[in-house]
Design a protein that fits this description.
This is Transporter substrate-binding domain-containing protein. This protein is 46% helix and 23% strand. The chain has 457 residues and is an alpha+beta fold.
């Protein structure tokens, strides 16, 4: 009886929290449904004669696009998708503009295309003083903070002061690079091409930290990395960046963003970022509920002391099952994310045996994972034998040196020679032990063919 009196209040609080979760889930579902309904009856916004004439003369806008998962990326069919794509589709429906995407492979390359006039627009560039010299920025339609990413075995980085006399690695022309060099000259800033290279240098210990968008940092968990604090006073607002000399386009975009229904924009962000965005700060009511739950949990724990051993064992088993389910959900998400990548990706163990690959890898080599799992590259009739043995030897040397590798090269495939951009990085367990190699490649020849590029390979 004492147990029942102690546990009933705890159960009441538990049911209240569950009901709150269902309500929030229902609200998110209603917002997505509202978005789908509204998409069928979008009306054109009112534009002046100068803006309408500009659209008639320039019906297509070229967008320089770097793959940035959840915001902007290509699905397994090669179609661009993500939060920013949904925003552009809504703007297209309101204005009649058509957006044509051309892929870039780094922030530096994207900025060069905008400066040269090869592209008109970007959806993933943060604003800074250097970029304002050759770009105009639309009104903001969202945003996220910048966070420090450092090694797991080091103290969590809380401020730029902790990086004094240390190496900070950033992708070339990063939005914060100029400010860091100007305000903290004693920080050694190392430039690389991509965020993947920056994370790899932090993992290997060649750099102490990097700085990344807080949403992006949550998407790439690693046993050797951990996310630190927000960079104080630095906020990455979401803008549409337009090259200078196109004031009509900036005006059109601003009018479209101004007419964008707030509920629909919120629904789009929930659709793409709801599952990975960092938790929002707790309100006073949330804290009260939390302390109340802790209190009820204490009473429940006191009541549980009166249970017999078999009931305690049942509770432990149930908790373990829930933990296994949670882990299974995480693994399922990671597998889905890897399979969604348009480029081939693979994982090999310390002996070079295949542990995992995505669908693009299977399609590129005309194999099935079930048939080649646990086998060495030259044991599979997927590549010319000389190529397979050369790559296997490179993998073994790389796992011995534990260095990340990024290179453009020409390789012989069954279908003939191809120009590729190859990357391979060692990965580690949670306790810092080398577990194998993660790698993949981008078929530069295919990208050039699809884009109609006639430049020499």
């Amino acid at each position: 009886m004492l147990f029942e009196r102690a546990i009933k209040p705890a159960l009441g609080w538990f049911l209240l929290l569950c009901l709150s979760g269902f309500v929030r889930g229902g609200m998110a579902a209603q917002m997505v449904l509202h978005e789908q309904v509204q998409a069928q009856k979008i009306e054109l916004i009112e534009l002046d004669e100068r803006e309408r004439r500009w659209i008639r003369d320039n019906p297509s806008v070229t967008v320089a696009s770097v793959q940035y998962p959840l915001y902007l990326f290509q699905d397994e069919h090669g179609h661009w998708t993500g939060l920013n794509i949904d925003v552009l589709k809504r703007i297209s429906a309101m204005t009649g503009l058509q957006f044509v995407h051309e892929e870039s492979f780094s922030t530096d390359q994207m900025l060069e295309r905008l400066q040269s006039g090869a592209a008109d627009l970007s959806t993933t560039l943060a604003m800074n003083d250097q970029r304002k010299a050759f770009l105009d920025f639309s009104h903001a339609f969202g945003g996220a903070g910048w966070v420090f990413v450092g090694r797991k075995d080091e103290p969590a980085i809380q401020s730029l002061e902790q990086l004094v006399k240390r190496v900070l690695v950033l992708p070339a022309r990063h939005a914060l690079e100029d400010a860091v060099r100007r305000e903290y000259p004693s920080i050694e800033v190392l430039s690389v091409k991509t965020y993947a290279e920056a994370r790899a240098l932090v993992e290997s210990g060649e750099a102490y930290a990097t700085i990344e968008n807080e949403i992006g940092a949550q998407l790439f968990p690693s046993g050797l990395l951990k996310v630190g604090a927000l960079v104080e006073g630095r906020w990455e607002a979401d803008h549409l960046a337009v090259r200078k000399g196109m004031p009509e386009l900036v005006s059109i975009l601003n009018k479209a963003l101004g007419a964008f229904p707030a509920a629909e924009l919120r629904a789009i962000r929930v659709k793409w970022l709801g599952g990975v965005a960092p938790p929002a700060p707790l309100s006073l009511w949330d804290e009260v509920v939390g302390w109340g739950c802790w209190g009820m949990g204490g009473l429940g724990a006191f009541g549980l002391l009166s249970l017999v051993w078999n009931r305690r064992l049942t509770a432990v088993i149930r908790q373990r099952c829930e933990a296994e389910k949670h882990l299974g959900d995480q693994l399922a998400f990671q597998h889905a994310l890897i399979d969604a990548m348009p480029d081939p990706v693979f994982v090999r163990d310390l002996q070079g045996r295949l542990v995992m690959c995505n669908r693009s890898y299977e399609e590129a080599l005309s194999i099935r994972f079930e048939q080649v799992q646990g086998r060495l590259l030259f044991e599979v009739d997927a590549l010319p034998e000389a190529t397979a043995r050369m790559l296997h030897d490179e993998f073994m040397v790389q796992m011995h040196t534990r260095k990340a590798r990024f290179s453009k090269r020409q390789l012989a495939f069954k279908s003939g020679p191809k120009a590729i951009y190859q990357w391979t990085v060692p990965f580690y367990s949670a306790d810092g032990q080398l577990r194998g190699l993660l790698g993949g490649w981008t078929d530069i020849s295919q990208r050039r063919t699809e884009s109609g590029c006639q430049c020499p390979h």
